[in-house]
Amino acid sequence: GCGAFPVGAGGASSWARRTVLWARLNLLLAVGLLAAGLAWPASASVTGDSRAAMHLAVLGWLTLLLFGLLFELVPSMTGQALGTPWLSLATLVLVECGTLTMAGAFVLPVGAGAIDVWLLPLGAVLVFVGLLAGIINVLTPMVPVWPLPLPGNFILVALGLLLLTAMLGLTFAIAMATSAATAQMQRLVDGGIGYQALAGLGGWLSLAGMGVSYEVVPRWMGLEPVDHRGFCAAVCLLATVGTILAVMTGLVGLWFPSRILAVAGYAGWLAVAAAAVLYLLDMLRFYRHPRPRAGLPDGPAPPGVAATLPAALALGLAPFAARRGH
To answer: What pLDDT is stored for residue 40 in this prediction?
Structure first.
């Protein structure tokens, strides 16, 4: 499926295929934990196995899947090559090794020795460096192209929220590994996990999936590329402002609770919900009025169409995940 787009130099297509392949393997691991009855909701409680399955699904599957799509799509969208093949390799290897390390830390019984204390921050460091390599890799072909096409704006904001998510995750992992965490850091861990989930699910995964689908679906349907007007622009603005507002007011409110911050946070949630509705309506509009270009084969939709699933899934899970984090 990755061969649907022309790519720039640097072996983008081959790295996209490898990254998507490993994403599918991580999905199988997460589903295996569910099938064995070890992870929630098959398990009655949220256990270490449940957290392992969640990290395998969100980091190992959805995040690597979207990076694979971006490694393929962004060079095609911008006409520029990715950074270097080494950055693609670093993203795949470090995120994969870090995700497996963190999953192992969650699965190990508490009190298994020093290993269960330091596996989690070690995995978080590996994931953070791998995600940073992926962000730099995707930004490299975007920097020379300004202003970006509107789908590129989705991707740009998504990368910023991914960096915020990774920084919060690294902070949580270090705080959990040390008994000397300050009261302020412990407060962030206790109340901030839900907002990290919102930044990752409602921000990174949803906005990146939207950007991919807005670039690919019109192209596949033979429609004009989306521009800075209409539903697409409204979705981008509402999703960006809403997610940032909900996350930042929530995090600041952990230390400085106030009615103003609470109202601003609810406004952010409403904006995210409105963006989700407009996005789904826009996708329905594309599919109700297709004009396939001559010469396109009948068969499965391209990878970008499949990216609408992570976007819809992430938007649906974000409120639930954020509430469970409290």
So the answer is: 63
